[in-house]
């Protein structure tokens, strides 16, 4: 198989694994509150860990290739804060439309933030596989594993807000396809023009968005349900799962 085509295929598989996150939507309805609480807390653990153990360190490394230590810290911090502010802005705009349906709002916010996260991921997977197939395979495996809990953070709120598995599947699929979109961008444009500053900017902004949605949306909403101890455990499991994925990567 042509290596470029293989790179697209690997990126597509890594991205499409997001739809596995729809599985909780097929669990028994009487466990609805627990499923929502666990899924939101688990997703918060996943997003915070991605931000703190992956996105921010990678952004720092990229900026370190351009700037000295002090400017690097300042620039990284500015972009993280900009990500938080952007997330707040989006949150407010979405809340104006979905004030009566917090779960639907959470699902929409999750789609936006994960698309922003998946596009650079798709770029990285495509470029890595194009240059080194073994590296691309190991990277895509780790990405596929951590895309599953990301899928949960979209599918569960959307399903329980709309009662439609089709909508949950569709929105989760969109998030997964954004990874392939990143690969297409890499192939057509970005591979020639991307630089450390642009990638560092994207990663730091995405980290800020994920931190905001985790602390101000996912965690508070998870604890609204009457299963606080189990919710905390789900949050910790989310952290552990992502740390294992980071080790694999």
Characteristic terms for this protein:
mainly alpha; 249 residues
Could you walk me through the main structural features you see in this protein, from its secondary elements to its overall organization?
The chain is globular and about 50 Å long. The chain is built from eight helices and no strands. The chain starts with a helix and ends with a helix. Helix 3 crosses helix 4, helix 4 runs antiparallel to helix 7 and helix 5 (133-162) runs antiparallel to helix 8 (228-248). The protein is an all-alpha fold and 249 residues long. The protein has helices at 3-16, 32-64, 69-97, 102-131, 133-162, 165-193, 196-222, 228-248.
